[in-house]
Specification:
Elements: E1 2-3, H1 18-22, H2 25-34, E2 38-40, E3 45-48, H3 51-58, E4 63-64, H4 86-93, H5 103-111, H6 117-140, E5 143-145, H7 146-151, H8 153-163, H9 173-181, H10 190-216, H11 222-228, H12 240-244, H13 255-286, H14 288-296, H15 298-312, E6 318-323, E7 327-329, E8 332-334, E9 339-343, H16 344-347, H17 382-399, E10 404-405, E11 424-426
Parallel strand pairs: 1-8, 3-9
Antiparallel strand pairs: 2-3, 4-6, 5-11, 6-9, 7-8, 10-11
C-alpha cells in the first residue's frame, strides 16, 4: 500500500474556470480513465470520480461530514475558522447535514416526521395548486425567465408553507439562502464570506423572533412542532465542544439546532429543486427528440424523466467528507485529516454503471444516480423534491406545450451547486 502523495495535482479539475463549469463532463471522463483518486492542490482534496467508489464512500463511517464530534480543529490538523466567520459556522455546524451521530441521529429522527410519505402526500394538492398557478401566470405572460418565475418560487413557497413563514416575509428567504450557500463553494473569497455572515445573522435573528411568536401562539407548522421538541433547560448551546463530545440530549432540540434546522430545510429544500428544474429544461431543449417523446407521453414518461434529468445534469456536483481515521483506498493510504471530494456529476456519468451516460434517455429504468446522496446523509427531502419536480414539469408540459428557448443561457459562477443564471423561454 502506497502513502497518498499530494505532490502531483491533477490539471483536469478546474472548478474556477467558466468553461469547465459550463461543461465539466469531458474532464470527468478523463479523470475516470486516469484512475480512482486524484489530488487537487488548490483545495487540498482527493477527488473521487467513479460511481462505485462515490457510492461506497458515502456509506463509509471512516469518513464524516464533520470531525468536531471527535476532534478539535488542532487535534485534526486544521486551522479554526476566522472569528469573523463564526456566525456562519454556528448556523451551519448545528444543521444535521454537517453533524454526525449521535446528534445527527437525534435531529434527523425529529425532522423526518415532517417528510414521511404520508406527510408528503398530504402536501401534494398544495404543491400541485402552486405549480398550476405559477405556470398559468407564466404562460399568460408569454414566458420569461423560467428560473425566477417558476423554478424558484415553487420550492420556496412549499418549504415556507411547511415552516409557517408568513407570506409577506417570504421574499427575504431566497437572498439569504443564496448568500449562505456561497460558502459551500470551493475556497470562497472574503466578500462571499462577508455576505454569508450577514445573511446568517439576519436569518438567525428573524427565526429567533418567529420561534418566539410560535412559542406564544403555536400553529400546525413545522416550527411549532420543533418547539415541542425544544429542551428549554439545555439552553442555546452554540459551542462546538459542548455539542460535539458525544452528548446525547435524547429527543430534544436546542434553540440553535431549531434555527439551523430551519435554515437547512430552506436551503436544501429549494436550491437543488431550482437548479434541477432549470438544468432539466435546458437539457430537454437541447434534446428535442427526447422532449417530443415526453410531450407525447407525459404521464408514462415523467417519473423516469425526473430521475434521468437529475442524473444527466445534477445540481450538486461535489460532496465533501473528512477522513476520520487512517484508511486505505484504491491502493493508497489516506491519513486522518485528509478531505475527499466525491464528484457526483462524474459518478452519474460513469459508463461502468450507466449505459451511454452522455445520452439523455428519459425512459432509463436502471438509474441509481447519486444526486440525493446515500448513507446517513441521504436527502431527507427527496420525496418532496420529486413531488415538486413532477408538479412543475407536468404543468409546463400541459399548459405550455410549445415552450421554446428565447435566448442562450449562461451558467452561474458556482460549481458545487451548479445552475443557470436564468433560462429565458417563450410559451
Amino acid at each position: 500500500m502506497n502513502q497518498a502523495d499530494p505532490a502531483t495535482s491533477t490539471p483536469l479539475f478546474r472548478p474556477g474556470d467558466a468553461d469547465f463549469v459550463a461543461n465539466p463532463y469531458p474532464a470527468y471522463a478523463e479523470l475516470r480513465t486516469a484512475g480512482r483518486v486524484h489530488y487537487h492542490a488548490p483545495t487540498n482534496q482527493w477527488l473521487i470520480p467513479h460511481h462505485a467508489d462515490v457510492s461506497a464512500l458515502l456509506r463509509d463511517r471512516r469518513l464524516g461530514r464533520s470531525y468536531q464530534h471527535r476532534f478539535t480543529h488542532e487535534e485534526f490538523g486544521r486551522t479554526p475558522p476566522r472569528p469573523a466567520h463564526e456566525p456562519f459556522h454556528t448556523l451551519n455546524d448545528h444543521g444535521m447535514l454537517d453533524l454526525e451521530p449521535p446528534d445527527h441521529t437525534r435531529i434527523r429522527r425529529l425532522v423526518s416526521q415532517a417528510f414521511t410519505p404520508r406527510t408528503v402526500e398530504r402536501l401534494a394538492p398544495t404543491v400541485r395548486r402552486l405549480a398550476a398557478r405559477l405556470v398559468g401566470d407564466f404562460r399568460e405572460a408569454g414566458g420569461g425567465d423560467l428560473v425566477a418565475e417558476v423554478a424558484e418560487p415553487l420550492p420556496v413557497a412549499v418549504i415556507a408553507e411547511m415552516l409557517g413563514i408568513p407570506d409577506a416575509d417570504r421574499p427575504l428567504l431566497r437572498p439569504w439562502s443564496a448568500a449562505i450557500c456561497g460558502m459551500y463553494e470551493l475556497n470562497p473569497d472574503e466578500e462571499t464570506a462577508a455576505r454569508a455572515v450577514r445573511a446568517s445573522l439576519e436569518f438567525t435573528a428573524y427565526l429567533r423572533e418567529l420561534i418566539g411568536e410560535r412559542r406564544r401562539s403555536p400553529g400546525d407548522d413545522l416550527i411549532s412542532a420543533l418547539i415541542a421538541a425544544y429542551d428549554g433547560e439545555s439552553g442555546d448551546r452554540g459551542d462546538n465542544a459542548d455539542r460535539g463530545r458525544g452528548r446525547d440530549r435524547g429527543r430534544r432540540l436546542t434553540e440553535q439546532e431549531m434555527i439551523s434546522t430551519c435554515v437547512l430545510l430552506l436551503n436544501a429544500g429549494h436550491e437543488a429543486t431550482v437548479n434541477t428544474t432549470a438544468n432539466g429544461w435546458w437539457a430537454l431543449l437541447r434534446n428535442p427528440a427526447q422532449l417530443a417523446a415526453l410531450r407525447a407521453e407525459p404521464v408514462a414518461l415523467l417519473p423516469t424523466a425526473i430521475e434521468e434529468l437529475m442524473r444527466y445534469d445534477t445540481p450538486l456536483q461535489l460532496f465533501e467528507r473528512w477522513v476520520l481515521e487512517d484508511m486505505e483506498f484504491a491502493g493508497l493510504e489516506l491519513p486522518r485529516g485528509s478531505e475527499v471530494a466525491l464528484l457526483f456529476g462524474s459518478a452519474n456519468h460513469d459508463p461502468a454503471r450507466f449505459a451511454d451516460p452522455a445520452a439523455l434517455d428519459l425512459s432509463r429504468a436502471d438509474n441509481p444516480h447519486v444526486s440525493f446522496g446515500a448513507g446517513i446523509h441521504y436527502c431527507l427531502g427527496a420525496p418532496l423534491a420529486r413531488l415538486e419536480l413532477a408538479s412543475s414539469f407536468g404543468e409546463l408540459l400541459r399548459q405550455a406545450p410549445g415552450l421554446r428557448l428565447a435566448a442562450e443561457p449562461e451558467w452561474g459562477p458556482g460549481f458545487v451547486i451548479r445552475g443557470l443564471k436564468e433560462l429565458q423561454v417563450e410559451c
